Amino acid sequence: QKEVEQNSGPLSVPEGAIASLNCTYSDRGSQSFFWYRQYSGKSPELIMFIYSNGDKEDGRFTAQLNKASQYVSLLIRDSQPSDSATYLCAVISSGTGNQFYFGTGTSLTVIP
Amino acid sequence: DGGITQSPKYLFRKEGQNVTLSCEQNLNHDAMYWYRQDPGQGLRLIYYSQIVNDFQKGDIAEGYSVSREKKESFPLTVTSAQKNPTAFYLCASSVRQGWEPQHFGDGTRLSIL
User: Fold this and answer.
1) A19 touches chain B (CB under 8 A)
2) Terminus-to-terminus CA distance in chain B, angstroms?
């Protein structure tokens, strides 16, 4: 079982809609969770982090964490074509010496 | 401006040649990492270092070597033993390993001539 799993997509949403990206993780003791955005041919860019159960909002982005169910999600409101990218979920797993694990990413396309 | 600088942006390797990818950071971060990314794939950890003069192998260390003689520098050598080196190489750093997010350089794209 992989430490972090994401649906590879592709996920397509119309401009202005809400895009919902999901991620599950295997180590129940994980404490730190991150979302990165990676445009084609570029390096990953940190867009959100969350440490506590519940929601964390930053502009059009909301990260949601549910430790009991071991999933973390990213909502993008009012999606724009510039949001089209691959979104990587990352988790720090305390069970393996605080190793940083990345999911394989979900490709998002926002259709104008 | 603080950040992570990777050079060169593009690199070509001939058969039997070792090449070294540079990674420098001025963020005063303790931990540094090297990842490999193949087209359409996720990130795979090659090596990481939590402190100067110490580093550990990641999931795909074979055919690669690193050094960490200075806090700000973590060069990666792709040796001739790495038979399929064509990939996008990413260097990252974090304040320390464990709780903090990783921040990435712009990457080096390595190809075989």
Assistant:
1) no
2) 35
